[in-house]
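Methods, example record. To illustrate the input and output format used throughout this study, we show the complete record for 2-succinyl-6-hydroxy-2,4-cyclohexadiene-1-carboxylate synthase. The sequence lines were provided to the predictor; the line carrying structure tokens was produced by it.
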Amino acid sequence: MTLAGVQHNGKPGYPWLVFLHGFSGDCREWQAVGESLRDYPRLYLDLPGHGESAGVSVAGFNDLSNLLASTLLSYNILNYWLVGYSLGGRIAMFQACQQPKGLSGIVVEGGHPGLRDAGSREARLASDRRWATRFRAEPLPDVFADWYQQPVFASLTDAQRGELIALRSRNSGADLAAMLEATSLGVQPDLRSALSACSAPFYYLYGERDEKFAAIAAELNAERHVIPHAGHNAHRENPGAVAASLAQILRLRTKDTL
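The corresponding predicted structure is encoded as:
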């Protein structure tokens, strides 16, 4: 079993950019950013429960890590960067901690490295289970109308919020619920120590209006890039600035290997 994805070729010798979207997104989420990096071969994946991978399910992060590795092998991707937003960023960090061969580096936008104590994890898992129950039982526009009222999305305008609700409501509620439970922050280990021991370069992006993840970024042993005029969903709110940060990172890291 592998994940569905959309791939685009780049120049010979350049590392692949493997893009991982956030919860309720799909392979299209990163394409506005990725298409400005046409020298690099690019793979935009649909995560389990999303897009063309809607029928794929995983039991947890270890299962998802193995599935991602199998998917990359199926595309013969042996030299690559992982670029992930939110849930996709958490997956990228977890994958990097497995020290996989061929990983050149990770770029994480607004991804949480993990909760520090059991009480916080239990509370988060209970909250995600309540959301999952709603995703299974209620019309998705109603659930997402409340989802995007969470504090982390406070920087969204009413128009942006409405656009996201319409876009995300094309998903299957049951499939989203299963993925939410399998990859809840409540079941994710705290990755801070493991990330510090990783050999792969680690870059962290966050919007200047995203106070929560600005504070999280300060805890990590990563090079930080602040995206202006953006909140939590920086690559959607300011794709040009995110693309520029990615281009800078990749230019510095790949110039000596080409």
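Annotations derived from this record:
The longest helix spans residues 118-137.
The radius of gyration is 17 Å.
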